[in-house]
Amino acid sequence: MDRLREIGSIAEKARRDHARRPRRNQSPAFKAKVALAANNGEKTLITMR
Length: 49
Known about the structure:
Blueprint: H1 2-20, H2 28-40, H3 45-48
């Protein structure tokens, strides 16, 4: 039973930490670059950064 409480407290902490993380905003130029590369099938998002 203690193990379940421990897992629950870890999960709750992870939810709180995730809620504090700011949203990543990409520039319009970067979004256009990604869209063009995806359309051409050239690169993935990870390799574009």
